[in-house]
Design a protein that fits this description.
By secondary structure, this protein is α/β, with parallel strands linked by helices. The chain folds into 2 domains: 13-145; 148-325, 3-Layer(aba) Sandwich (Rossmann fold), CATH 3.40.50.2000. Helices cover 34% and strands 16% of the residues. The protein contains 15 helices and 13 strands. The protein has a 7-stranded mixed beta sheet with strand order 2-3-1-4-5-6-7. It has a 6-stranded parallel beta sheet with strand order 10-9-8-11-12-13, with helices on both faces. The longest helix is centred in the last third of the chain and has 13 residues, at 298-310. The chain starts with 12 loop residues before the first strand and ends with a helix. 40% of the residues are buried.
Length: 342
């Protein structure tokens, strides 16, 4: 594994995540422009990504900065050992991943990992105070680099969009988004994932779902909603996703999580109105006119949906998010912010 940066001025950065696969950014350069997950930190620094359990002390000692995803369950003990045994010159950044509610319950090793870090990257501004209370280490709101220009190029003119509503979350994860959309008189669509039937996955699938049918979740959603106005599709690859969802008239994302609001960022870059919640902290800044106080205000969501359908001036006002508001999310700006905080 080549950990050497392509730019001599760049530090050697290693991103540790829960996705399997060890690679240098130069080996997957075709995804550099479109990546929006934690792997985008590897591209920002011309660095590498490693599955966290594959990393060892020798690998860590070869780096200048480690960016470790905190949402890794059983892997946290291994991360803590690596953080505590790293050389003094190696900076450790713990990247908060998942929803802040997941951290309310006491978890083994998480406070020790925070305390062993040089910096905690908090991904939701509203949770900053909570995470600062958990540790004596520096905690700052930074987030994750986002491919602003790539997504913005996928935008479809207002007049060319279908009068359909995109329901953002996978349809078996929650149902209140659907209830807010179902009385608005438009066609709706959403996604559900297929089960991956690799031989090694079969026992796990049987234990978790009682089935190895690849369409198990799609069929479960179809059986629950039973609505001919709702189309349920298999989840798309990045290459196909933005053009598909960018064709919707507006989105519904009544998110109950305090997390990184990628749906909200996508909607802003695509210039599509999204009805969402204040817990997704980007929404307050980017979509103040269609931002709900909480995920249970179905009536207000319906009222906003009707106004978006009936009032084109309001629609354009909501959709016209200046791309300058997303400028800080570009890789070069996020990279500078993280380095300045270290």
């Amino acid at each position: 594994m080549n950990l050497i940066s392509n730019k001599s001025s760049d530090p050697k950065v290693l991103v540790l995540g829960s996705n399997r696969g060890n690679w240098h950014s130069s080996e997957k350069i075709q995804f550099a422009e479109s990546t929006s997950g934690i792997e985008s930190w590897a591209y920002a620094f011309n660095g590498s990504h490693y599955y966290s359990l594959s990393a060892n002390k020798k690998l860590i000692s070869m780096c200048d900065i480690i960016i470790a995803n905190s949402n890794q369950g059983k892997n946290l003990k291994h991360l803590l050992k690596l953080a505590e045994s790293r050389p003094a010159n190696v900076k450790w950044v713990t990247l908060i991943e998942g929803s802040a509610e997941d951290y309310l319950k006491p978890m083994s090793f998480i406070r020790e990992l925070f305390d062993s870090s040089d910096l905690i990257n908090c991904i939701n501004l509203g949770t900053l105070s909570f995470f600062r209370a958990m540790t004596s280490s520096k905690v700052e709101y930074i987030g994750i680099p986002y491919p602003v220009e790539y997504v913005a190029r996928q935008s479809i003119p207002f007049e060319s969009r279908k009068k359909e509503i995109f329901i953002c979350p996978f349809l078996t994860t929650r149902c209140h988004d659907y209830f807010a959309a179902s009385n608005l008189g438009l066609k709706m669509f959403g996604f559900e994932e297929r089960l991956h039937r690799k031989i090694t996955n079969l026992p796990k699938l049987l234990m978790k779902y009682g089935s190895i049918n690849p369409n198990f979740k799609i069929n479960k959603a179809l059986d629950f909603y039973r609505d001919n106005n709702l189309s349920i599709f298999q989840s798309k690859t990045t290459e196909n996703y933005y053009k598909f969802v960018g064709n919707a008239y507006f989105w519904l994302n009544l998110d109950n999580r305090w997390t990184w609001a990628r749906y909200v960022l996508d909607a802003a870059a695509l210039r599509i109105p999204i009805i969402t919640t204040s817990s997704t902290s980007h929404a307050v800044e980017l979509f103040p006119l269609t931002c709900l106080d909480d995920e249970f205000d179905i009536e207000k969501a319906e009222d906003l949906g009707r106004r978006l359908i009936q009032d084109f001036d309001f629609y354009k006002q909501v959709a016209d998010v200046p791309l300058s508001k997303l400028e800080y999310l570009k890789a070069e700006n996020m990279k500078k912010k993280l380095l300045d905080l270290l």
